[in-house]
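So, who can interpret the following?
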Amino acid sequence: MKPAQPSSGATARRLGLGRMLYLTWHRPRAAWARSVRMGGPWNQWRDERGRRAMVAAARRLPPAPPPPPDAPEITFLTGRKYWYQTAFCAWSLQRAASGGCRFRFCDDGSFDAALVAETQRLFPGCGVDLQSEIEQRLEAHLPAARFPALRRQRRTYLHLRKLTDVHAGRRGWRIVLDSDMLCFRPPERLLGWLVRPDRPVHMVDVATAYGYPAATLAELAGTALPERINVGVCGLHSESIDWPRLEAWCAALLERHGSSYYLEQALTALLFAGQSTLALPAGEYRVMPDEAECRHPTAVCHHYVDLSKRGYFRHAWKLVAAGTAAPR
């Protein structure tokens, strides 16, 4: 005899109770824990006030000078929600590099005509890869039938697009920067790599953060992974990426352990396993700077992850906007 199937009403009630538990217990607990971690409501309000001021200031940034025709290209995955951060990062980098870079903006799916016009106003000579063009390229080079895990995961986990959307079907070396960064001095090592790339380049994290068990990652790679890879800056040789292997890794991680905020960083570390890479010096290209460093930058570049968002929103972007972080 078949077991009795739950009625639709019972299913609805069960789902309703689950939703109610999430809304009345889990979400408030998570919000409270985050508030405590961020220093309480007063500090959160001050951080948000600084963020909103940064959004407004990004609209007032003057156009960067047009780059020379042979300027190396830097890519950002971006869109409407984070454009203000992208704008400040690219603008600070162009200023610190004395106009020696050009930019390509990879649409995360939220670009419209107004944002395209703003990118072209602020960064003359830039390129924009719209999502419609990207989807066509992915169908040609990463068809969903052959790469189901990568294609499915990139829909909801946008960080993965820094690999799929930027590199699939491309040739040569390409470098991607995260938007939540600022540049304060000439990035000589980064510029040197752009002129003569010969191996992958990345930042050095404050700790190893791959989101998956080290044993699983070592098993997939066939060797221990390099430690403290941070992909705030990540340069790869596009046609050297082994996409079938990346698909297998992605599928295995998702099947065994589920998704993770660090999936893209883990996959990149897997790609780097056994390779020679250029690690940008942590003292010059600083991940998660403390508040003192945000107020008075000594590093070439900052990557504002986690709690360093406070110094980013309250202090660091204002130095760029005011021009007080002059190149030396």
Notes: The chain has two domains: 8-37, 54-322.
